[in-house]
Each structure stands twice: as structure tokens, then as C-alpha cells.
């Protein structure tokens, strides 16, 4: 009955949507200068975009709600984009980000107090029905009731989530609007002006939630935010490619998605002679060698403080220790006066602005003083001499680029050993260089961010976050990561307090996500055992109860390894797994097996740190490259005592590799199995 009812409803809604769409498609796009016409075209364009989304999938949920003191129970259909009936003005489909839709995600069935916050205040009432609706190609596929008032447990909620999680994955992360969970909803809708810091276990949906949060913020705070002033920092180009689909699916464009090094080098260090070290070489060296822990001094706030102290000293030393006397035997501007202007009148301006303002002030002073001469000719001459002298005086203030200032600072600190060659700037130098740049040149208003997202933030240093903080209008951040996956121990942090302290507790909000949606119960239980070896272990992942096959652990002779990998891949292909990954400890290990394996499995692709995109299918990759990605099935190779000895670093690497698997995980080793997985 519910199915028939929804089929009729869908038919009627689609007929209105299709008609509206066709009508708008017939109106030619306005390309002219008329202001009113442009505003009208802008709003038509927005409606066209919403209708395009709605034509594909009009809605995915229905919520029946009765407002307190009203008789009528109203059905709200929730979709990715809101749609109005252009004739009646009625809401046909409610945007998933609208306040009432929050009830759909947040209401679990047992709350006494049911309300949502509308722009006019709190709206209380009762929920009668929560229903998921699946459509495909404008046809109704499935109707699942998650809550029916008065009935014990409709609980199609879990069933529907499982149905979604059992799906096989392709090469892109997808939106989750139909199944956002209560705790995820809370983070997505958390108010704008705080730093939201999320520690989430592998597969808890951190990246997905952060992207949905951006779409939500742009909707809820549309008056305050602009997409092009929001930025997402992700760990590498493959990952950026992997997540690139989600925001367009949610109808959001224009948000800059980049990596921190790329952004600093292209947007800030505007110096063609400055070149960044090869990050893939750096990471390869770090991961392929033994994994010595390194102290990231250049990423610390203490280092920032020292840089700042030196900068302020440099700024003082920058002012020539002399009066400005443009004309012989006449009064000039005493040094004392210049210092007062700089320290009092120009206070708060960055060094280069102070320079510009002093130049303007001295130019005006020359103009006024020149008028003291009676003769026009004398005035002219005085002006000319004055300006000449001003140029000489200003030449003493040498213009400096961030790298030169950095070199000077490190020299003063007697740490020239820390200065990288100009054509091999290291990742660790980027925060100091950015800081120096912003201190010296200042940050223009339109360069400040409205909101910053940092994914895999455990690999960011406090110094990096601190300089980004200074570039963000309010402390509006979404910072997400997992300490258990902090494999770049030489770059990042080992406790979130590092960031919380930076913003202050009143300006930040810490969330923990412990439910893991990606993997089966068996895979999560297995991966959790690896975490026992971490000294500073965050909470264990809790599975959504989705059971699959046991994790297979097998010893194979070295000579049989290739054969084993090949037969495993064939086996997985037979099971119709779409994304299949063979994960090895290092790139050198991948190189050693790739040619022979490729002969047997021609569709195999090898992914390295240098790759820019992930194409799905069958992949061979080093474990550290797999971070952030996911695959239907994973084979972890060489999980033995030599390649994975018991250290913090290898435990994290192995954990990252194993938690990439959604439905199936196999582990093979030659020689003794790593102690990280013994006694499992
Ligand atoms: N509420 C949900 N409904 C359906 N799928 C979900 C939900 N939350 C997360 N997922 C799925 O779980 C998987 C993991 O999500 P995501 O990659 O965002 O997690 P993560 O915490 O960033 O993972 P990791 O740290 O391991 O890289 C994705 O396939 C995502 O679609």
C-alpha cells in the first residue's frame, strides 16, 4: 500500500518538475548588462540547477510531522535540492539542509521532546512517519519505513543503512544524504563560528561529513559565506580526485580543494626561484626506510614564537637609524618623529604597509615644506631635491621576500643549518614562510577565508593550523582526522589538545566518532586488535552490525607469493568485487611484483604517490598511499615480522591498510606473521 501511495505521489511530483524544467529550458539564457534581467537570470539559473538535481532523484525521504496545536499531519518530502511549485508557491520538495529535515536525521524514535529550530523560533510537534524512498530513473524502487508512530519498532533504519553499506564502491566517494546518522547530523549542522575538531575512527565518515557540512554551511549561512572563500585541504592529489564528486552531487561548486603545499607555493610564495622539494620523494624516503621518529621542531608553536620575535626585531632594524634631511642646512624629519609615526600612527599595519604609509607621509611633508619657498622656481627645485633624497632614503629599506627574511631570521637565531636551499624548500618550511609572508605583507580582507576544512588533520602541525587560523575571518574550521592513522609522525600531532589549545576551549568543539560504517564487523574487529600496540590509542572502532566473511590470514612461501596474489585477484573478480586492492609495504615492493603481475592481470594499475587520479578497478599500491581511499576487497601482502615489526609507525600503517576494506580482507605473509596480528 505504501508503495502504491508513493508511486502515485512520485508520478505527480515528477510531472510538475518536468513541466517546470521544460518551461525554463525554453527561456534563452540572458547575456546582457541590464541589472534586473541579470538578477532574474541568476534566480532562473538556480531553479534550473535545483530542477536538474530533482529530475534525477526528486527525493529520498518522507517525514510526517504534526505541529503542536495544529490538526493536520503534514508530509514533507526531502531531497538534495529544494523545489517549489511555481503556480501555487507550495514547497514540493524540502532541501535536506532545511531545519525541518534535521528531524528526519536526528529523531531516533524514543525522544519525548520533538522540535526543530525554524527561522521563526522553536517548532514543537510529533513525528508520525519517517520513510526512506529509493527512486531510479524517475521510477520508484523501494520504500522503507524507519519509524511509524504507535508501532513498536519500524526499525527499517538499520535495514536501510545496511542496504546502502552493502553496495559496492566505484572510484569516487559518494554523498550520504539518505542515511546521515544522528551523530553525523549533529556535526554537519554545528554552528559556523567555532573550530569543529573531529577525532573519528577509520571509516566513520569524517571526510563525507566534512563535505556535507560545507554544503550545509553554505545553505544555512548564505548571507555570510561565499563558496570561493572556503577551502578544503586534503592530503594529496589522488585523494582530491577521489572526493571530487561529493560536492557537485550536493549541488555545491566553487570551493577550492587543494593541498597545503600546493596552495602555499602557488598562492603565497610568489617567487619562481623558490621550489618545493619532491613530496613523493620525501614520503618515499620516510616510509621506505626504517621509520625513525623525528621531532618536527619547525612545526611547533615554539618555533613560531621565535620566528615572530625575530620578525618584530627585523622590522625595527629595518628603519634607517637617521633623520630624514632632504635639504642641506634646513630642518628635516627627526628619527624620533619617524619612529613615532611608525609605532603609533601606523600601528597594526604590516611592515610593507608601514613602509608605504611612511613614503606617502614623507612625500606630503616634502610638498608642504617646499611651499615655504617664496619663488615658484625655488619650490620646484626643493620638490625635486626632496624627492631625490626620499628615494635615496627609502633605498635603505631593502625590499625583502619571505625566503630572504627566513634566511635572515635563521641567521640571527644561529640556525642556518635549518635553512633549505631555495630550490628545495621542505614541507616543514611552508608554515614559517607563510607566517613570515603574512606578518610582513599582511593579509588583505578578500584573502581571508570564511571557512577552512582540514582533512587528515593529524598530519598537520600546530604551526600550520596557527597560520591558517590567522587567515580565517572567525575561527571557522572543520578539522578532522584519526590519531590512529597518523602515519606521518614526522609531520603532525599526537594529541588533539595541540589544536584545541590553539583555538581555546570556548572557540572550539571536539567530537569523537567511533562508529565505523565502511567495513564489516569482522574487518573492524581484526583491525582493532592492531591498535592494541599504540601507546596513545584513541577509542576503538565500533561496527555497524554488518557481518561478512572472516578475515583470511595465510602463510605462503615466497616463491608462491605471485601465484597467490594472482589467484586471489581472480577469486575476487569471480565474486564480482568492483574495486580490488593489493597493498604492499613499500613502493619498492610494488615495483618488484608489478611487471610479472601485470602480465597475468592486464587490467591491473599501480598507484604511487605521484599519481593524480584513482581509476578504480584492480590496483596495486604501497600501504601509505592507500590512506583515505577504500576498496571492496583488500589483500595485505607481506605482513611479516620484517616488514611490519611492532612499532607505533608500522601498527598505524597496517591499521590504515586493513581498514581500507569494505567487504573482504585477506592477509598473507611469508616467514613469521607480524606480531601486530598474532594472537588475533
Ligand atoms: N551515514 C552513512 N551512510 C552511508 N554510508 C556512510 C555513512 N557514513 C559513512 N559512510 C560510508 O563509509 C565510508 C567511509 O567514509 P569516509 O571515507 O568519509 O570515512 P573516514 O572517516 O574519512 O575514513 P578514513 O579515515 O578511514 O579514511 C564511505 O564509503 C562512506 O560513504
Automatic annotation (TrEMBL):
<keyword id="KW-0413">Isomerase</keyword>
<dbReference type="GO" id="GO:0043138">
    <property type="term" value="F:3'-5' DNA helicase activity"/>
</dbReference>
<dbReference type="Pfam" id="PF13538">
    <property type="entry name" value="UvrD_C_2"/>
</dbReference>
<keyword id="KW-0067">ATP-binding</keyword>
<dbReference type="GO" id="GO:0000725">
    <property type="term" value="P:recombinational repair"/>
</dbReference>
<dbReference type="Pfam" id="PF00580">
    <property type="entry name" value="UvrD-helicase"/>
</dbReference>
<keyword id="KW-0547">Nucleotide-binding</keyword>
<dbReference type="InterPro" id="IPR027417">
    <property type="entry name" value="P-loop_NTPase"/>
</dbReference>
<dbReference type="GO" id="GO:0005829">
    <property type="term" value="C:cytosol"/>
</dbReference>
<dbReference type="InterPro" id="IPR014016">
    <property type="entry name" value="UvrD-like_ATP-bd"/>
</dbReference>
<dbReference type="GO" id="GO:0005524">
    <property type="term" value="F:ATP binding"/>
</dbReference>
<protein>
    <recommendedName>
        <fullName>DNA 3'-5' helicase</fullName>
        <ecNumber>5.6.2.4</ecNumber>
    </recommendedName>
</protein>
<keyword id="KW-0378">Hydrolase</keyword>
<dbReference type="InterPro" id="IPR027785">
    <property type="entry name" value="UvrD-like_helicase_C"/>
</dbReference>
<feature type="domain" description="UvrD-like helicase ATP-binding">
    <location>
        <begin position="179"/>
        <end position="520"/>
    </location>
</feature>
<keyword id="KW-0347">Helicase</keyword>
<dbReference type="InterPro" id="IPR000212">
    <property type="entry name" value="DNA_helicase_UvrD/REP"/>
</dbReference>
<dbReference type="GO" id="GO:0003677">
    <property type="term" value="F:DNA binding"/>
</dbReference>
<dbReference type="Pfam" id="PF13361">
    <property type="entry name" value="UvrD_C"/>
</dbReference>
<dbReference type="InterPro" id="IPR014017">
    <property type="entry name" value="DNA_helicase_UvrD-like_C"/>
</dbReference>
<dbReference type="GO" id="GO:0016887">
    <property type="term" value="F:ATP hydrolysis activity"/>
</dbReference>
<feature type="binding site">
    <location>
        <begin position="200"/>
        <end position="207"/>
    </location>
    <ligand>
        <name>ATP</name>
    </ligand>
</feature>
